[in-house]
Amino acid sequence: MKKTDNQILTIFGASGDLTERKLIPAVFNLFKRGFLPENYAILGVSRTDFSDEEYRKKVVFDNPHLKASKDNPGELENFAKMVFYQSIDTKAVVDYQLLANRLKTLCNDCHTDQNYIFYLSTPPSLYSVISKNLGEAQLNTEEKGWKRLIVEKPFGYTLESAKELNNQLLESFKEDQIYRIDHYLGKETVQNTLVARFGNTIFEPLWNRIYIEKVEITAAESVGVEKRGGYYDGSGALRDMIQNHLLQLVSLVTMEPPARMDAESIHNEKLKLFRSLRPLTQDDIRDNVIRGQYLNSTIGDKQYPGYREESGVDPESRTETFAALKFYIDNWRWADVPFFVRTGKRLPTRVSEVVIHFKPNHHHLFSQRRIANSQNVLVFRIQPNEGILLKFGLKVPGNGFKVETVNMDFQYDGLTDAYVPEAYERLLLDCMQGDATLYARGDSVIAAWEFVDPILKAWKDDPDLPVYGYPSGTWGPEQANALIENGHGWRNPCANLVDDGLYCEL
Ligand code: BG6
Questions:
Q1: N or C, where is the chain less crowded by C-beta within 10 Å?
Q2: Separation of 499 CA from ligand 1 center, angstroms?
Q3: Which segments does the entry list as coiled coil (predicted)?
Q4: Which ligand 1 atom is the nearest neighbour of the CA of 350?
Q5: d(CA 296, ligand 1 centre) in Å
Q6: For the ranges 58-62, 125-129, 247-251, 297-301, which has the lowest average pLDDT?
Q7: Sign (positive or negative) of CA dihedral 415, 416, 419, 422
Q8: Measuring CA to CA, which residue among 381, 377, 375 is closest to residue 410?
Q9: Tens of pLDDT along 124-170?
């Protein structure tokens, strides 16, 4: 096991939703599993006035997202002892002296070294201010311990602003101190795409244009924008999910084998891949990028509001809650293989998966009408039930050679003693150990923006590009189906990994 140094985690945006829902629970799980170093502290930082005790009550004792073990009543108390709070005005450089002093005191009291992670879980407009102020207060220097900065998404709003943010961060921190988090990369099956490809002999020889017909990626959510209408209306599905999570996923599924399993080798391959994405022309954006917005509908006996009726959303909003696109990767391995990616809110179910469609075999021995035998399909189910499914043809018992598609699947929940860590848990531990493999490097984030930015510009500048409505609880606008040629359509996944071709969960 890698060594985890004694350290302090400082969370900016300490009274926010992410801290309560994901960050504190992630550290708590690491604590329960014995992954924290001997000396460790969490310092929450925000403007609100809390004492240490009040903050502990909020994020530990009253936090509904912490799952304490029933047989260990002292667990919460022991964890809470590591949690502290400091109120500062994050915009005021003078307040960073307060922070520096508090960190020093904590180092003495808790016997941690001066190894600090600063987690930016604030509105994005504060990222560059905080990093600059940390630099002014010398909290970026590494003479007496390492310093790391974790930056939450969204990383930029456009290509320009992403470049600007990157440059601003690099004024105070070096690239190897900056950890741009993308929680999709912390998901078990996302990492499994690498293991399946590069840890076996049977997949990689087929992983190219000669054997693969097309690749589909779906990230569907059944919820709407919930309480985040204000944020979401300024973002939309392309920025919220595709620019980051889904393009990161595309890169892992398609990149070349890295020389080594380390951050630099993987980041280099991902960058190469992003640079091979064929830029979308205006015609491609018109024909191959579909956006939609959910409309109100009744599912069962429940009435769901349309997007424009959600709180915080402009009643005339043209922000997309669904986006689907078709694109190509111009390199030796993937020339002419179409990629289809879609995501949306208020779809029939919550599911994310990657579907690899292999080409049909070239000689159809078992088909009377000489049409292609059913094709092989490999599915990586990322959530909710992590697993892998392979579809292939087998003989139906009896006379003749009737072929039927069968499923071979592996699901993690079948392993009773397998603990599947939450994405934030895995990623935080990696940062604590100085491993940036599952974080995004600046140049590849910019390269992903270069691909997405023309779509955002076209949507902004051309009012004729439609936003299609789709009833809540359906698989998005019909036009998205037409993207996949030959009438085969998308695999509309069900909650159960092996069911498909059905309209489930409606
Ligand atoms: C976030 C988006 O990054 O990812 C949300 O801002 C989205 O809108 C969420 O709901 C999806 O993540 P997960 O892990 O629930 O699939």
A1: N
A2: 24
A3: none
A4: 16
A5: 21
A6: 297-301
A7: positive
A8: 381
A9: 999 999 999 999 999 999 999 999 999 999 999 999 999 999 999 99
Same domain, yes or no: 213 and 362: yes
Give helix 159-172 / helix 127-136 axis angle, nearest 10°.
10
* 336 and 193 together in one domain: yes
Q: Is residue 435 in a domain?
A: yes
Q: Are residues 50 and 144 in the same domain?
A: yes
Position 314: which residue type? D
Which residue range is the domain that position 123 belongs to? 7-152
Question: What average pLDDT does this structure show over 21-38?
Answer: 96
Q: Verify that 253 and 388 share a domain, yes or no.
A: yes
Is the CB of 240 within 6 Å of ligand 1? Answer: yes
Same domain for 281 and 418, yes or no, is: yes
65, 111, 245, 364: the active-site residue = 245
β-pairing, 387-395 vs 403-411, is antiparallel
Closest CA to 168 of 147, 143, 140, 144: 140
Question: Any idea which of 177-181, 256-260, 370-374, 436-440 has the lowest mean pLDDT?
Answer: 370-374
pLDDT above 80: residue 327: yes
pLDDT for residue 414: 74
Which CATH number belongs to the domain containing residue 30 in this structure?
Answer: 3.40.50.720
**What CATH number is given to the structural domain containing 439?**
3.30.360.10
Which atom of ligand 1 is found nearest the CA of 228?
Answer: 8
**Domain for residue 447, yes or no?**
yes
User: In the predicted model, is pLDDT for residue 506 greater than 50?
Assistant: no
Q: Residue type at 140?
A: N
Question: Tens of pLDDT along 370-412?
Answer: 555 568 999 999 988 889 999 988 888 998 888 888 999 998 8
Q: Is 291 annotated as a binding residue?
A: no
> What is the enclosing helix (H) or strand (E) of 417?
none
187 is in an annotated binding site: yes
> Half-sphere exposure (CA, 13 Å, Cβ side) for 199?
7
CA of 183 to the centre of ligand 1 (A): 9
Q: Count the domains in the chain.
A: 2
Active site residue 362: no
DSSP H/E element including 323: strand 322-327
Asked whether 136 and 95 are in contact (CB, 8 A), the reply is no
Pocket test residue of 241, 294, 351, 353 for ligand 1, highest count of atoms within 8 A of CB: 241
Q: Does 1 map to a domain?
A: no
Whether residue 215 is found in the same domain as residue 116 = no
With a 6 A CB cut-off, is 353 part of the ligand 1 pocket? no
Residue 373's pLDDT is: 57
